[in-house]
Amino acid sequence: MINIGISGTGFIAAGLYKRLVRDHNYQVSSVLTRRRKEEVAVVPQSILTNNLVEFTNKADIIVECSGDIEHGSNVIEEAHFQGLPVVTMNAELQVTTGSYFTGTGYITEAEGDQPGSLASLNENMIDMGFHPLVYGNIKGFLNTNPTLKDMKYWANLKGISLAKVTSFTDGTKVQIEQALVANGLNAAIIKQGLSGLQARSIEGAGAALAAEAIELKTPISDYIIRKEGPPGVFISATHEDDQQNELSYFKVGDGPIYTLTTPYHLCHLEIIKTIKRVVEGKKPLLTNSTNPSVSVAGIAKRDLNPGEYIREAIGSFDIRGEAVTSSEKPDHVPIGLMKNMIIEKPIKEGEVITFQKITLPPSRIFNIWKTIQTAKPITQGK
C-alpha cells in the first residue's frame, strides 16, 4: 500500500482525496491544510494536519495541489529534505520556483491540468513518430479585465475561489500554463502574451501556428480561443512523407501538418496516472526545466500609483500575467512573486511591471527565484 500525502483541501485536493479512497492500491496517509481542521468537510479529521513535518513523515509520495506558490514551495522543500517524490498540480508554483526543485529531488507536474495533458499527448505522439511543432491550449473565453461583479457570480456558481476564477478569465492561468509547457518541452513563444488566435477550427489554427513554428525553426507553445471548445489541448505536428497515405486513411488529414487533440482535462481524476508513473520509477512527466527561457510577467490592469499595496497579484483586479521571453524582458517581475508588494513609482495600465518600480518583502520564494536566475544563462527555445 502506497501512502499518499495531499497538500491542500481546496477543489483539486478534495476531489483527489475522494478518488484515492476508492483505489485499493493507495492510502491517503495525511492531508495538510492551512485552515482550521474543523472547517474542512470532505476529509476525515483523523488524517488532517496543520503540521508540515508530521504530514511528510506519514507519506511515501506527496501531491502538492494547494494552489499557493509560497506554501507549496515550503511543502516541496520539506518533502525533498526527507527524500520524498513530489507530484504537483500547481503550474503557478512550477513557473516560479519549480526549476530550483528539479535539482533537489523528484518533482513532476501531473497529468490532468493542461500542461500535464500536453506533456502526455507529446509522449504519445513522439512514440508514434510525429514531430511536434505546436503545443496548444484550447480556451473558450477571455476577458483581460473582468468586473468584480461578474467574477463573484461565476465563483459562486462554480464553487471555486474568486481569485482562481479571475485568473482563468483574465488569461493569467493560460499564460502560466503555456510558459510551463514552453520550458518543459523545450519550445519557444511567438511573442509576449502569446498569439491567442480566434479559431473556427482547431486544425486551421494549428496549421497557422505551425507555419510560425517552422519559420522560427523551433516548436512553439501557445493557445487558441474557440467558444465551442473542447476544453482540452492539441498538438500540431509533421510526420514522415511515407506515412501520408496511412495517416489520411486514419482520417488524421492529408498533411503535411497533422493535429491531434485531447478533448478534455479532468484535473484531480487524472493525477493518479502520474502517481503510478512515480511508483513505476519513470522520469518526470513535465518540469519547468533547469534552464527556463519563458517567464510570466505582471501587467498592470489599471494605473498603479506610488504607495499602493498589492496583497497578491494572481487573480487580482490590479494585475494580470503575460508570458514573456526572459532575455527580452530581463527586468520584469514574475507575477508569482507579487505578494505583499508596494508600488514605488507610477505604473501605467498595460505596462510590464519591473523591479525598479516596486518593492517586494524578503521571502523564501524570492530567494529561490534569484537562485534560479544565477544558476544558468537563459536562452530562447532550442
Automatic annotation (TrEMBL):
Residues 112-271 form the Oxidoreductase DRL-like catalytic domain. SUPFAM superfamilies: NAD(P)-binding Rossmann-fold domains. It comes from the Bacteria. Pfam families: DRL_cat. InterPro entries: DRL_cat, NAD(P)-bd_dom_sf. CDD domains: SAF_DH_OX_like. PANTHER family: SAF DOMAIN PROTEIN, STRU PROTEIN. This is Predicted homoserine dehydrogenase, contains C-terminal SAF domain. It comes from Alkalicoccus daliensis.
